[in-house]
Design goal:
By secondary structure, the protein is an alpha+beta fold. The strands form 2 sheets. The protein has a 4-stranded mixed sheet, with helices on one face. A hairpin with a 7-residue loop joins strand 2 and strand 3.
């Protein structure tokens, strides 16, 4: 889309009937759109792994500073939830907290009140993935949850407007 707009702006800049201020504005817009398009292309080339689903559990790599890993035995619920424009997969789990050095005092007090249990909620947003890939993620979540922890609650929401 940006490439089309860059071409249109470039065509308008060649017109002699335009004022210098409008040409300057279009030039700035072209530079801005080229920069934005370059960022998108670089992000697409990264192929960064966001989530890993396997027989061991679920690993969330979306936060570069803290990776969250939930074993299937720690997962309590897998659900699909309807968002405004897409579906989301919510994975809820409870596990014993291990890294107390990185926690604040309030969180440490809450942990001691909860029997040293942490509550995790991993959200996989369908807006980040193509429809086919997202359906495969939902299928894999169901498959691994049922196979490795049969007591996991699996709920699915259907939105007639999203048609998914």
């Amino acid at each position: 889309m940006n490439l089309i707009l860059i071409g249109i702006c470039g065509c308008f800049m060649t017109m002699e009937a335009m004022s210098i201020w409008l040409k300057l504005f279009l030039g700035v817009m072209i530079v801005f759109m080229i920069i934005m398009e370059g960022k998108v292309i670089c992000r697409l080339k990264e192929k960064k792994i966001l989530y890993r689903l396997d027989q061991k559990g679920i690993t969330d790599y979306t936060d570069p500073e803290k990776t969250i890993y939930l074993d299937w035995k720690d997962v309590g619920k897998v659900e699909t939830v309807v968002n405004n424009t897409s579906l989301q997969i919510g994975i809820m789990g409870i596990k014993v907290s291990e890294d107390k050095n990185r926690m604040g005092e309030i969180l440490k007090r809450n942990l001691s009140a909860n029997g040293n249990m942490s509550f995790y909620h991993i959200v996989i947003d369908g807006f980040q993935f193509r429809k086919k890939v997202f359906r495969e993620i939902i299928h894999q979540c169901r498959y691994f949850a049922v196979k490795y922890h049969p007591s996991v609650v699996i709920t699915e929401s259907n939105d007639p407007f999203l048609k998914r």
